[in-house]
Amino acid sequence: MEKQKGPPVPTGVALRDVRRQLFEAADRILLRDGPSGLTSRAVTAEAGCAKGVLHKHFEDFDAFLADFVLDRVERLAPEAAALESRKGTGTVAGNVTTALAAVFGSVAVAIVALITFRDELRARLRDTLPAGVPVLTEAAEMLAAYLAAERDLGRLPAGAEVEVLAAMLIGTGHLLYADRTGQPPAEETVHRMVSSVLHSSSA
């Protein structure tokens, strides 16, 4: 007797689900083992997928990694919206401290290490993100937009160079969070750094 086939799974839905599984597996491997542990075999094993699944959906492993990085860049959008919604409330230093914890408390630091680790990945990302370091560049743009809004509200000096301040905050924040194997910096440490950088705008 011929076996009855179930209803077809929409291709788009299936692909989104596979991408999510593989990307989340890559997150876990990066955070646990670092860039050197991130291989196609490790990703499929972590995701509980057959070995050929990744190459069925992506041209090669670097194509997978490029999509993975771009997906994580897009995940900054909710953080940007949350930060924008806090303008004019609380303190500027407190809001920035919360934003930095959200950015660097995620997989962002490990992704920067991954981009540095793989030459081919950097080359592929240049087609879509021609300038700066993915994730860090977008995070700096997010902070600059927020600081500009606070400057317009008079909560930062009128002459504050928000792009410079944002770059300083992201660069110094990255240094504070860079050791993925250790404990993240205390909130007070990050807040003190943020306050110092913001204070420089009024010097």
TrEMBL record:
Q: What keyword terms does UniProt attach to this protein? A: DNA-binding, Membrane, Transcription, Transcription regulation, Transmembrane, Transmembrane helix
* Parts of the chain that traverse the membrane: 96-117
Q: Where is the HTH tetR-type domain?
A: 16-76
Q: Which domain of life is it from?
A: Bacteria
List the coiled-coil residues: none
Which residues, as ranges, make up the DNA-binding region of this protein? 39-58
Tell me the InterPro entries matching this sequence: Homeodomain-like_sf, HTH-type_TetR-like_transc_reg, HTH_TetR
Single GO term (MF): transcription cis-regulatory region binding
Q: What is this protein called?
A: TetR family transcriptional regulator
Source organism of this protein record: Actinoplanes cyaneus
